[in-house]
Protein backbone atom coordinates (compact mmCIF):
# COMPACT_ATOMS: atom_id res chain seq x y z
CA UNK A 1 0.00 0.00 0.00
CA UNK A 2 1.27 3.48 -0.81
CA UNK A 3 0.16 6.73 0.77
CA UNK A 4 0.11 9.97 -1.19
CA UNK A 5 0.21 12.97 1.11
CA UNK A 6 -1.64 15.18 -1.34
CA UNK A 7 1.31 16.70 -3.12
CA UNK A 8 1.38 14.93 -6.50
CA UNK A 9 4.71 13.18 -6.97
CA UNK A 10 6.33 14.90 -4.01
CA UNK A 11 5.62 12.87 -0.88
CA UNK A 12 4.68 9.24 -1.12
CA UNK A 13 5.57 6.39 1.19
CA UNK A 14 5.02 2.68 0.80
CA UNK A 15 3.60 0.96 3.88
CA UNK A 16 5.08 -2.52 4.11
CA UNK A 17 6.35 -5.14 6.47
CA UNK A 18 9.96 -4.62 7.48
CA UNK A 19 12.57 -6.62 5.52
CA UNK A 20 15.92 -8.02 6.70
CA UNK A 21 17.72 -5.50 4.47
CA UNK A 22 16.13 -2.66 6.50
CA UNK A 23 18.26 -3.20 9.62
CA UNK A 24 20.40 -0.06 9.30
CA UNK A 25 17.40 2.11 8.38
CA UNK A 26 15.41 0.63 11.28
CA UNK A 27 18.25 1.45 13.68
CA UNK A 28 18.26 5.06 12.47
CA UNK A 29 14.48 5.30 12.84
CA UNK A 30 14.57 3.73 16.31
CA UNK A 31 17.15 6.26 17.49
CA UNK A 32 15.03 9.08 16.03
CA UNK A 33 11.93 7.72 17.81
CA UNK A 34 13.68 7.60 21.16
CA UNK A 35 15.19 11.08 20.77
CA UNK A 36 11.85 12.59 19.74
CA UNK A 37 9.56 10.86 22.26
CA UNK A 38 11.63 9.25 25.04
CA UNK A 39 8.65 8.52 27.33
CA UNK A 40 6.64 6.74 24.64
CA UNK A 41 8.94 3.75 24.22
CA UNK A 42 10.32 1.10 26.54
CA UNK A 43 14.04 1.65 26.17
CA UNK A 44 16.43 4.56 26.42
CA UNK A 45 18.26 6.07 23.51
CA UNK A 46 21.53 5.07 25.19
CA UNK A 47 20.47 1.41 25.33
CA UNK A 48 19.32 1.46 21.71
CA UNK A 49 22.50 3.19 20.53
CA UNK A 50 24.63 0.61 22.34
CA UNK A 51 22.93 -2.30 20.57
CA UNK A 52 25.05 -3.74 17.75
CA UNK A 53 24.07 -3.85 14.11
CA UNK A 54 23.86 -7.64 14.42
CA UNK A 55 21.23 -7.28 17.18
CA UNK A 56 19.16 -4.89 15.04
CA UNK A 57 19.50 -7.23 12.07
CA UNK A 58 18.31 -10.20 14.16
CA UNK A 59 15.29 -8.28 15.47
CA UNK A 60 14.34 -7.07 11.99
CA UNK A 61 14.72 -10.58 10.55
CA UNK A 62 12.47 -11.99 13.29
CA UNK A 63 9.70 -9.46 12.70
CA UNK A 64 9.88 -9.68 8.91
CA UNK A 65 7.95 -12.98 8.76
CA UNK A 66 5.61 -15.07 10.83
CA UNK A 67 2.36 -14.67 12.75
CA UNK A 68 3.58 -13.68 16.24
CA UNK A 69 5.33 -10.36 15.76
CA UNK A 70 5.50 -7.91 12.85
CA UNK A 71 6.84 -4.46 12.18
CA UNK A 72 5.46 -2.19 9.47
CA UNK A 73 7.35 0.79 8.10
CA UNK A 74 6.64 3.81 5.93
CA UNK A 75 9.27 3.85 3.22
CA UNK A 76 9.50 6.86 0.88
CA UNK A 77 11.88 4.81 -1.27
CA UNK A 78 15.14 6.51 -0.47
CA UNK A 79 16.87 7.78 2.61
CA UNK A 80 15.33 7.27 6.02
CA UNK A 81 12.19 5.39 6.93
CA UNK A 82 9.51 7.85 8.07
CA UNK A 83 7.15 5.77 10.19
CA UNK A 84 6.74 2.55 12.14
CA UNK A 85 4.10 0.46 13.87
CA UNK A 86 4.56 -2.99 15.34
CA UNK A 87 2.14 -5.71 16.33
CA UNK A 88 2.54 -8.72 18.57
CA UNK A 89 0.39 -11.46 20.01
CA UNK A 90 -1.26 -10.92 23.37
CA UNK A 91 -0.14 -13.82 25.57
CA UNK A 92 -3.38 -13.90 27.57
CA UNK A 93 -5.99 -13.12 24.89
CA UNK A 94 -6.10 -15.26 21.75
CA UNK A 95 -7.91 -12.89 19.35
CA UNK A 96 -5.89 -9.79 20.16
CA UNK A 97 -2.91 -8.05 18.59
CA UNK A 98 -1.06 -5.52 20.75
CA UNK A 99 0.22 -2.55 18.76
CA UNK A 100 3.58 -1.16 19.86
CA UNK A 101 6.23 1.39 18.94
CA UNK A 102 4.02 3.61 16.78
CA UNK A 103 5.90 6.56 15.36
CA UNK A 104 5.67 9.03 12.49
CA UNK A 105 8.59 11.36 11.85
CA UNK A 106 7.60 15.00 12.57
CA UNK A 107 7.65 16.21 8.96
CA UNK A 108 5.14 13.48 7.99
CA UNK A 109 2.70 13.98 10.88
CA UNK A 110 -0.79 14.90 9.76
CA UNK A 111 -0.28 13.23 6.38
CA UNK A 112 -2.44 10.16 7.03
CA UNK A 113 0.61 7.97 7.55
CA UNK A 114 -0.44 6.99 11.09
CA UNK A 115 -3.69 5.49 9.83
CA UNK A 116 -1.92 3.63 7.03
CA UNK A 117 0.59 2.12 9.47
CA UNK A 118 -2.21 1.00 11.81
CA UNK A 119 -4.09 -0.41 8.80
CA UNK A 120 -0.99 -2.44 7.91
CA UNK A 121 -0.87 -3.96 11.39
CA UNK A 122 -4.65 -4.52 11.32
CA UNK A 123 -4.54 -6.40 8.00
CA UNK A 124 -1.72 -8.60 9.30
CA UNK A 125 -3.64 -9.20 12.54
CA UNK A 126 -6.77 -10.29 10.67
CA UNK A 127 -4.74 -12.58 8.41
CA UNK A 128 -3.40 -14.26 11.57
CA UNK A 129 -6.92 -14.77 12.96
CA UNK A 130 -6.81 -11.96 15.51
CA UNK A 131 -9.81 -9.65 15.00
CA UNK A 132 -9.03 -7.02 17.66
CA UNK A 133 -6.28 -4.44 18.29
CA UNK A 134 -5.09 -2.96 21.59
CA UNK A 135 -2.62 -0.18 22.27
CA UNK A 136 -1.51 1.81 25.28
CA UNK A 137 -1.03 5.58 25.48
CA UNK A 138 0.61 7.54 28.29
CA UNK A 139 -2.10 9.42 30.21
CA UNK A 140 -1.70 13.08 29.28
CA UNK A 141 -0.47 12.43 25.73
CA UNK A 142 -3.61 14.05 24.36
CA UNK A 143 -2.32 14.41 20.80
CA UNK A 144 -1.79 10.64 20.48
CA UNK A 145 -5.05 9.90 22.29
CA UNK A 146 -7.05 12.05 19.87
CA UNK A 147 -5.24 10.61 16.85
CA UNK A 148 -6.08 7.07 17.93
CA UNK A 149 -9.70 8.06 18.57
CA UNK A 150 -9.90 9.36 14.99
CA UNK A 151 -8.70 5.91 13.87
CA UNK A 152 -11.56 4.20 15.69
CA UNK A 153 -9.86 3.25 18.95
CA UNK A 154 -11.95 3.56 22.10
CA UNK A 155 -10.71 4.12 25.63
CA UNK A 156 -11.45 0.94 27.60
CA UNK A 157 -11.21 2.64 30.99
CA UNK A 158 -8.33 0.33 31.91
CA UNK A 159 -5.29 2.09 33.36
CA UNK A 160 -1.95 0.38 33.89
CA UNK A 161 1.34 1.55 35.36
CA UNK A 162 3.97 2.65 32.87
CA UNK A 163 6.46 -0.25 32.65
CA UNK A 164 9.53 1.94 33.22
CA UNK A 165 8.33 5.07 35.03
CA UNK A 166 6.23 4.23 38.11
CA UNK A 167 4.86 7.77 38.45
CA UNK A 168 3.22 7.54 35.01
CA UNK A 169 0.09 5.69 33.91
CA UNK A 170 -0.96 4.36 30.52
CA UNK A 171 -4.51 3.93 29.25
CA UNK A 172 -5.64 1.10 27.02
CA UNK A 173 -7.54 1.63 23.79
CA UNK A 174 -9.13 -1.03 21.54
CA UNK A 175 -10.75 -1.35 18.13
CA UNK A 176 -11.55 -4.07 15.63
CA UNK A 177 -8.64 -5.02 13.38
Automatic annotation (TrEMBL):
Ranges of residues in domain N-acetyltransferase: 13-177
A molecular-function term among this protein's GO annotations: acyltransferase activity, transferring groups other than amino-acyl groups
GO CC aspect terms: ribosome
Coiled-coil boundaries: none
Alphabetical UniProt keywords: Acyltransferase, Ribonucleoprotein, Ribosomal protein, Transferase
Domain of life, source organism: Bacteria
Signal peptide: none
Gene3D superfamilies, alphabetized: 3.40.630.30
Record protein name field: Ribosomal protein S18 acetylase RimI-like enzyme
Lineage: Bacteria, Bacillati, Actinomycetota, Actinomycetes, Micromonosporales
Amino acid sequence: MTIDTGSPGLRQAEIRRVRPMDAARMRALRLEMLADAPLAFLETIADAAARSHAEYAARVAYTSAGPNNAQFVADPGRGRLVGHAGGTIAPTEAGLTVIYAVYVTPTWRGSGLLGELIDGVAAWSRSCGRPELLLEVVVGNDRAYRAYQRLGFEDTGVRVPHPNIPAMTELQMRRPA
